[in-house]
Amino acid sequence: MTRRTHILLWTDSTAAYVDAIKAAGLAERVVIDSLSRKAKPSEEQMARTEALMAYVVPPGVLSAMPKLRWAQAMTAGVESWLALPDLPAGLSLTCARGTHEESMPENILGALLYVAKPYAAAVENQKRGKWVQTVAQPLTGKTLGILGLGAIGQRVARLAAALGMRVIGTRRRPEAMVGVAQVLPAERTPEVLAQSDFVLLLLPATPQTENLIDAERLRMMKPGAWLLNFGRGQLINDDDLVAAVKAKTIAGALLDVYRQEPLPADHAFWSTEGIIVLPHIGGPHPQRDRFVARLFAENLGRFLDGKPLKEVVDRKAGY
After folding, report:
1. Is 280 in the active site?
2. pLDDT at 60
3. What mean pLDDT is reported for the chain?
4. How many CA atoms are closer than 13 Å to the CA of 35, on its beta-carbon side?
């Protein structure tokens, strides 16, 4: 009888993942343990787990799993994993990079339209029964600067280019891309900031990107430019952004991610005119479990067959 590999699905809803494992023809090769996110695995579970899927795990768990060889993070960002003091050096860590490609580009496009068009003002005027005629600003001909031209950034670039926008941006290893007029290395970020009417942040949280957008870089932006953050909250110096928006250094900011979530009720972002707070709606999708499950099942097959895994985290790069 073929030995089965023990895997632990540490998430609240496992149906999509079990279905994906069955659809991939792997059900007879594994033993599945399921655990809710708030629960902690038993000593027996930790002793037998060889592969793990979870959002994140608390310190002290991974080091207590002697047979663990692979962990699949259910999110694209893995800063919480990399911050674990007992993250085993030899553990293969993969992330859910690419599973936001359907929802996030649409939400970013919606954000661009929201800040460029007077829909919000019209809704407020309707509440007061006021007819205020305004002229909507076109996106056509405007420059969108994307810091972080990964899979999501490239998809946004194609959509923005279809609307007539000029797209420029940065990437760790620059290469020509469809819909992007200029792809620059990270050290040329100031050029992107200076040219852009909208600056979109899609970078991961790493020591190199911590407080990337501070007072100095905000001064590099156009006074009429908007900052949109769908990457990580750590990319922005919160106090510097509040000061820049209040001083009209930039036109405003639309934020979907924060250093602390939920955003504390007393945070200045809530009350600063010109800053729009979204409750981290960029990536979630009604069927996102299905997307992550597809990636997990493919990686599980590769793991069982001893093949290279997809979306492996580069620990030095931080993503």
Report:
1. yes
2. 95
3. 96
4. 21
How many CA atoms does the CB half-sphere of 135 hold within 13 Å?
2
pTM of the full structure: 0.89
Residues 52 and 169 in one domain: no
Residue 1 has a pLDDT of 54
Residue 173 bears catalytic tag? no
Whether the CB-CB separation of 93 and 32 falls below 8 Å is answered with no
Residue 189 burial (C-beta neighbours within 10 Å; 0-12, 13-18, 19+): buried
Domain around 144: 103-277
For residue 33, give the 3-state DSSP assignment. Answer: strand
Q: Is 188 exposed, middle or buried (0-12, 13-18, 19+ CB in 10 A)?
A: middle
Q: Let me know whether 119 and 214 are in one domain.
A: yes
Residues 225-253: b if buried by 16+ CB within 10 A, e if exposed: bbbbbbbbbbbbbbebbbebbeeebbbbb
- Tell whether 111 and 140 lie within a shared domain: yes
Q: How confident is the model at residue 100 (pLDDT cuts 50, 70, 90)?
A: confident
Which residue is catalytic, options 124, 210, 216, 261?
261
- Choosing from 259, 280, 285, 288, which is the catalytic residue? 280
Whether 127 maps to a domain, the answer reads yes
Give the length of the chain.
319
CATH number at residue 82: 3.40.50.720
**Which among 6, 50, 232, 311 is annotated as catalytic?**
232
User: Once rounded to an integer, what is the mean pLDDT over residues 12-33?
Assistant: 97
Distance set, CA 209 to CA 41, 129, 189, 267 (Å): 34, 46, 12, 22
| 158/161 Cα distance (integer angstroms) | 5
Q: Is 43 a catalytic residue?
A: no
Tell me the average pLDDT across 206-235.
97
Report pLDDT digits (tens) over 235-278: 999 999 999 999 999 999 999 999 999 999 999 999 999 999 99
What integer is the mean pLDDT of 70-84?
95
